[in-house]
Specification:
Elements: H1 11-40, H2 46-71, H3 83-103, H4 107-141
Helix pairs in contact: 1-2, 3-4
Length: 142
């Protein structure tokens, strides 16, 4: 792997991406409130409950990502996500790609970029873990 692919992005791009995630958080909050108000009016469908859980989880993750991007303070290892969350994201990408491919033959076109995204997440998680273990080894040597 070439190191320049993992170089830090310019601060301007981090701010723009952070603002995009703020908009995503606001839209998810709006969807959460709309779903909650539908439930309070007496429409207690199971879909509404799962929608609330989805909006809350994705909204929290987006809020955390927006905070890290806008504040410029990521994790100690320099990334925005932990290796574990990168692996979870790769599994979700693979699962989504397989579901799309199973539902319709044209879904195979969606499978390719999702498998590529999953591979990128797994590669980055492996790199982050390798960097973390090297830091621990260096600290132990001191």
């Amino acid at each position: 792997m070439k190191a320049h692919h993992y170089a830090q992005a310019p601060r301007f791009l981090e701010i723009v991406a952070g603002l995009v995630f703020v908009i995503v958080v606001l839209l998810l909050a709006l969807a959460f409130v709309a779903t909650l108000s539908a439930m309070l009016r007496g429409n207690m469908a199971a879909l509404h409950i799962w929608s609330l859980v989805f909006f809350a989880l994705v909204g929290f993750a987006s809020c955390l990502l927006a905070w890290r991007l806008l504040s410029g303070r990521g994790r100690r290892d320099g990334g925005l996500f932990s290796p574990f969350s990168l692996r979870v994201a790769s599994l979700i990408s693979l699962f989504a790609g397989l579901v799309m491919a199973w539902r319709h033959p044209l879904g195979l076109l969606e499978l390719v970029p999702l498998v590529a995204a999953a591979g990128a997440c797994l590669g980055l998680a492996r790199l982050r873990e390798r960097q973390n273990t090297e830091r621990v080894d260096e600290a132990d040597d001191r």
